[in-house]
Amino acid sequence: MAWVYLILAGILEIVWAFSMKQSEGFTRFGASAVTIVAMIASFALLSMSMRALPLGTAYTIWTGIGAVGAFVLGVIALGEQATPMRIFAAVLIVAGLVLMKLSAAD
Description:
Subcellular location: Cell membrane
Order of helices and strands: HHHH
Radius of gyration: 15 Å
GO molecular function, one term: transmembrane transporter activity
Oligomer: single chain
Low-confidence stretches: none
Number of strands: 0
Protein name: Guanidinium exporter
GO cellular component, one term: plasma membrane
Largest sheet: none
Structural class: mainly alpha
Mean pLDDT: 95
Transmembrane segments: 27-46, 58-79, 85-104
Strand content: under 5%
Number of helices: 4
């Protein structure tokens, strides 16, 4: 279950990052509320995953899911640039996540 919690926490990190952008500096109530609720849920799930997973593994995977997910969502939903260098950087992050998962002794 620790990995399920961690993946859900990462997905919620993407949600709160996107909704924070949509909140326009916490000036829009709905997006601000989604941000805060998703943050709390993401942190709660991360902490639950850390009961069974090492700190380095859990935190790296959580931030990596959030970083790559926010990048992809930014490109798709917000029209941000998908330059070759940015795509390569995202690929490197995913490669790191795969290596971190493979090295986890769970």
